[in-house]
Structures are given as structure tokens and as C-alpha cells.
Specification:
globular, 2 domains, Dna Ligase, domain 1, binds zinc ion, Arc Repressor Mutant, subunit A
Length: 141
């Protein structure tokens, strides 16, 4: 069993939710993807694997995976939201191109430190964050 599955099982049982074969299939597929994806792509790929799974099930399972910290949602304004698994990966933030939808990942230590400092100044106990810089990529600007 992979660590993500262990974590998901623990989360489901804590919340009195069942660990179903559909939920497992979605989790395993999400963990195998290393790009940002849309719900529709994920649904399509699962169906191509022969899984008879509804769009609603995919959507609901993703919401659970986000809640338990395995998946992150990247809101994309007027474009469909993108998702990615973050479990087992170093923290990173995103830039989103509003014209072509390109997503650029970045890590920047001074930005990270500044956010921790700001939170502390407000007596705020920070447990996480996700920063999205919106704008236009090199090709679209
Ligand atoms: Zn960050
Ligand atoms: Zn662009
Ligand atoms: Zn990312």
C-alpha cells in the first residue's frame, strides 16, 4: 500500500466514510499523474481505463482528497480549475496565464519567509498557504 493510500484510508475512517474501490482507483490515478489536470481530463482517463465512474463521483472524491491534504486545487478564474497531487512533494506556488492557461510552478524562499513573518505579526498560526500569481506568460503578454 502506498503512503497516500494509508493517509486516505485514515482520513475516511476518521470521517466515517467508506473506502470504496472507486475512491481507491481515483486516488491511484491521481498519484500517477505528474501534471496539473482538470476534472474532465481525470474523468476521461478513468473511463478509458474501463472504469464506469460518474463525473459526480470523481468530483466528490477530489474534494475529499483536497480536504485530507493529498490534492491541491488551483482556481483558474474563468477557465476550469486545475488539480494536482501535493502529497509527497515539496511545497510550491503557481503563476497562471489568463490567456493560454499555462501554469508555471515556482519556489521562492524569501516569499515563504515573508509570509511566515506576516502571519506571526498578526498572532496568526500559519498551517499552510497557496499563492497564485495571475497574469500573462512570456508568449501571451
Ligand atoms: Zn509558497
Ligand atoms: Zn500564456
Ligand atoms: Zn503545481
Amino acid at each position: 500500500m502506498i503512503d497516500a493510500e494509508r493517509k486516505f484510508r485514515a482520513y475516511l475512517s476518521e470521517n466515517d466514510l467508506r473506502f470504496t474501490s472507486e475512491r481507491l482507483a481515483i486516488l491511484l490515478h491521481v498519484m500517477s499523474l505528474h501534471e496539473h489536470f482538470e476534472v474532465d481530463d481525470l474523468h476521461h482517463q478513468l473511463r478509458q481505463q474501463g472504469l464506469r465512474i460518474s463525473h459526480a463521483t470523481v468530483f466528490r472524491t477530489l474534494a475529499l482528497l483536497i480536504d485530507c491534504g493529498i490534492v491541491q486545487k488551483i482556481p483558474c478564474q474563468k477557465m476550469p480549475a486545475r488539480y494536482e497531487h501535493i502529497f509527497g512533494h515539496d511545497h510550491h506556488d503557481h503563476m497562471l496565464c489568463l490567456r493560454c492557461g499555462k501554469i508555471i510552478e515556482f519556489q521562492n524562499a524569501p516569499i515563504e519567509r515573508s509570509q511566515e513573518k506576516v502571519a506571526k505579526e498578526h498572532g496568526f498560526q500559519m498551517t499552510g498557504h497557496h499563492l497564485i500569481i495571475r497574469g500573462y506568460c512570456e508568449k501571451c503578454r
